[in-house]
Amino acid sequence: MATHVAQSRTVPLPPEQVAHRVLTAPLEAVIRRRYAAIAPVRETRDGPAEWGEVGQSRRIVLTDGSTVLETLTQVDPPHAFGYDLTEVTGPMAPIAERVEGRWSFEPVGTGCRVTWAWTIHPAGRMGALATPLVGLMFRGYARRVLEDVERHLLAEHGHA
Question: What integer is the mean pLDDT of 109-137?
Answer without folding.
Answer: 93
